[in-house]
Amino acid sequence: MIHKAWWCWPVLLSGCAYWPSAEHRSLTSATVADSLAQQQQQQTEQLSQQWQQACGDWQQQLSRLSEQLQQLQTVSVPESAPAATPQPCLAVEPEQAEQGDKVIVGAVEWLYLPALAQYLPGRIDSGATTSSLSATQMTPFERNEERWIRFTVTHDEIGGAVELEAPVVRYVRIRQASSDELERRAVVNLTVSLGKSLRQDTEFTLTDRRDMDYPLLLGREFLRDVALIDVAQEFIHPKPPVNKAGPVEGENSE
Predict the structure, then answer these.
(1) CA distance 98 to 108
(2) For residues 193 and 120, is the Cβ–Cβ distance under 8 A?
(3) Cis peptide leading into residue 20 (ω within 30°)
(4) Other C-beta atoms within 10 Å of 159: how many?
(5) Domain extent listing, the chain
(6) Most buried in the list 90, 164, 214, 247, measured by CB within 10 Å?
(7) For the whole prediction, is pTM greater than 0.90?
C-alpha cells in the first residue's frame, strides 16, 4: 500500500510550493482593513447615487403637482355647512349683448350692490367658484342665536369705507395660487345686479382686496348657465339709473 502511493508526494510538495502565493503572503491586517474600507466606500457611494436619483424623481413629481396647483386660482373647502344652492338668475328683459339664451359679459363689468347702494367695477372670473368682496375689520358676533359678521367694505374704487352687517352662511378655507396655506373666510349672501338682465342673491367670501385692481370678483356660481365671457371686452353693460330697489329697467345712463 505504501509503495503504491510514493508518486503522490511530488504532487503534494509541488502544491505547497505554490500556496500561499506572493499575493497572499503580502496580505497584512492593515491591507485587509484598507481593502474593506475601499469596498465600504464604494458601496456608500453607490447608495448615495441611488438616493440622489430617487430624490430627483420625487422632486420632479412635486414640481408637476405644484404646476397643477398654480393653475387653480382658488379651492373652496367647506368647514361646516354644505354650500347653499344659488338662486337662478332672473332675466328681466333681453340684452343686445346676447348669444342664444345667454348674456355676454366682458372681463370687467359694473356691478350694483343694493347693500352699498352703489356700483362697483368687478372682475368676471369663471375660474373662481365663489364671488369675493373686499372687506376689512371683520368682527363675528351672534344675533338671535345665529352667526353674523360686521365688516367694512374698503377700496379706492368705493371712495371711502362702508360698514355692513350680514348673516354668515358658512366659513370656507381658500388656497390661493400664490400660497400653500389655507385662508379661513366668512361667506355672506348679498344681492348683486349686472346690467338690466341679471340680478340674484350671490354668496361672497370676505377678504382684503385693497391691493387688487377691483374690489369685487364675480365667480361662476353667478355666471353658470346664464352668461358667456368675452375676455376681449370690458364694461359691455352700462350702468342703469338706480333707486332704492336697484337699477331701473328700460333706461340707460353713462
Answers:
(1) 16
(2) no
(3) yes
(4) 8
(5) 29-71, 98-247
(6) 247
(7) no
pLDDT surpassing 90 at residue 28: no
Cell, residue 32: 485587509
Closest CA to 141 of 186, 204, 183: 186
First-last CA distance in the chain: 131
CA distance 17 to 23: 14
Nearest to 205 by CA among 238, 183, 178, 229: 183
pLDDT in tens, 128-138: 888 999 999 99
Say what the pLDDT of residue 241 is: 64
CATH of 98-247, one of 2.60.40.1180, 2.40.70.10, 1.10.150.910, 2.40.37.10: 2.40.70.10
DSSP β-bridge partners for residue 9: none
* CB neighbours of residue 116 within 10 Å: 16
Place of cell 374698503: 154
3-class DSSP string for 123-165: EECCCCCCEEEECEEEEEEEECCEEEEEEEEEECCCCEEEEEE
Place of cell 396647483: 69
Using DSSP's 3-state secondary structure scheme, residue 59 falls into helix
Q: Are strands 198-207 and 108-113 parallel, antiparallel or unpaired?
A: unpaired
Give which of 146, 152, 140 is closest to 207, Cα–Cα. Answer: 152
